[in-house]
Amino acid sequence: MSRYRPPSKPSSKYITAAGEKRLREELHHLWKIERPQVTQAVSEAAALGDRSENAEYIYGKKRLREIDRRVGYLSRRLDDITVVATPPDNSDKIYFGAYVTLEDDTGNTFKYRIVGADEIDPKLGYISVDAPMGRALLGKEIDAEVNIESPTGCKRYYVIGIEYLIETTK
């Protein structure tokens, strides 16, 4: 059996202003704060002698590799993304950055925000523009019916609200 995995489909290159700010803060924290601390801990552990049985050294080196991998990803990603900081001209339709209120057949309401792949947060109701629901919602207007195929079957929602909030990144 092969370990080959086909490359994943590239995610959208859009991000909200708040999402970009969070990525930049994470990059700064990893590169300027956490990496120097871990590097210092690894050098202190290396000074203790035998590195083959030194858990602090082994796990410190592993953490450094994780930090470097994430820093590399964030640096490349921040160079490639497009920040969407202003609402669209037509705020009657669902576009990137919209807060969307949906109602299902049973009368339950759900509020989601269409965001980029780097900002997904189910607790906040942030869904990716690349997700099936995000793709299905794009371009819809109030009172539109949206059918989403899920593992449990087809679900029907009705758009009952669309809102765009102006973000401040200060």
Short description:
The chain has 3 helices and 7 strands.
What does this 3D model show about the protein?
The chain has two domains: 14-83, Helix Hairpins, CATH 1.10.287.180; 86-163, Transcription elongation factor, GreA/GreB, C-terminal domain (Chitinase A, domain 3, Roll), CATH 3.10.50. 36% of the residues lie in helices and 23% in strands. Strands 5-4-3-7-6 form a five-stranded mixed β-sheet. It has helices spanning 17-46, 55-80, 132-137, and strands at residues 14-16, 82-84, 99-104, 109-115, 126-128, 145-150, 153-163. The protein has 170 residues and is α/β, with parallel strands linked by helices. Helix 1 (17-46) packs antiparallel against helix 2. A hairpin with a 2-residue loop joins strand 6 (145-150) and strand 7 (153-163). It has three helices and seven strands, in the order E-H-H-E-E-E-E-H-E-E.
Task: For the structure shown, list the relevant keywords.
3 helices; 2 domains; single chain; five-stranded mixed beta sheet; Chitinase A, domain 3; 170 residues; 36% helix; elongated; Helix Hairpins
Q: Count of DSSP helices?
A: 3
Structure class: alpha/beta
In helices, the fraction of residues equals: 25-40%
User: What is the number of independent domains?
Assistant: 2
Main sheet characteristics: 5 strands, mixed
CATH architecture of the largest domain: Roll
Classify the fold: give the CATH topology of the largest domain. Answer: Chitinase A, domain 3
State the strand order across the main sheet. Answer: 5-4-3-7-6
N-end to C-end Cα span: 51 Å
Roughly what is the average pLDDT, rounded to an integer? 91
Low-confidence stretches: none
Q: What would CATH call the class of the largest domain? A: Alpha Beta
What characteristic shape results from the CA principal axes?
Answer: elongated
> Based on DSSP secondary structure assignment, what is the total number of beta strands?
7
Strand/helix succession: EHHEEEEHEE
Q: What is the beta-strand fraction?
A: 15-25%
Radius of gyration: 22 Å
**Oligomer type:** single chain
